[in-house]
Automatic annotation (TrEMBL):
UniProt source species: Nocardia panacis
Matching InterPro entries: HotDog_dom_sf, PAAI_dom, Thioestr_dom
Annotated transmembrane regions: none
UniProt keyword list: Hydrolase
Residues annotated as domain Thioesterase: 61-139
Signal peptide positions on this chain: none
GO cellular component, one term: cytosol
Superkingdom as given in the UniProt entry: Bacteria
Gene Ontology MF terms: 1,4-dihydroxy-2-naphthoyl-CoA thioesterase activity
Protein name: PaaI family thioesterase
């Protein structure tokens, strides 16, 4: 395989995320699998969106809670990533999600905003919200991430 298009060792988290999102052919990821689009990437804040679809259904026919959990985990984790220096990584240590309302699987647009609360030397925390197209709260959550040094 050829050289990677971006080098995480020399780019800050914000630079890396912006570079990856600007690529015409993005690397395969959970985002591509679920159809997640990056709408905003700023220092300490990320906005991701997706449209529900029938294969997101739980046994009751509404969007599976794991879809919102993954959307939140992605938005909050990437918000943390935007605040990291070059060469640092992170991983989710804890994820807490509160579900507020069921979401149909008929192409409803869900928008998740993740925002950092604290970014320290060894851990970081962030919060997130998922809203539907009408601006109603669907789910909200918090995360704790471990900062990985010397990757």
């Amino acid at each position: 395989m050829g050289a990677p298009a971006v080098d995480y060792r020399t780019m800050s988290g914000l630079e890396l995320l912006r570079a990856v999102m600007a690529m015409p052919e993005k690397p395969r990821s959970i985002g591509s699998l679920m159809g997640i689009d990056a709408e905003e990437i700023e220092f300490g804040r990320v906005v991701f969106a997706l449209e529900t679809r029938p294969d997101f259904a739980n046994p009751l026919g509404t969007t599976h809670g794991g879809i919102c959990a993954t959307l939140l985990d992605s938005a909050m984790g990437c918000a943390v990533h935007t605040a990291l220096e070059a060469g640092l990584g992170y991983t989710t240590l804890e994820l807490k999600v509160n579900y507020i309302r069921a979401v149909p699987t008929d192409g409803r647009r869900l928008v998740a905003t993740g925002t950092t609360i604290h970014v320290g030397r060894t851990t970081a925390t962030a919060e997130g919200r998922v809203l539907d197209a009408e601006g109603r709260l669907v789910a909200h959550g918090t995360t704790t991430c471990v900062i990985l040094r010397g990757n």
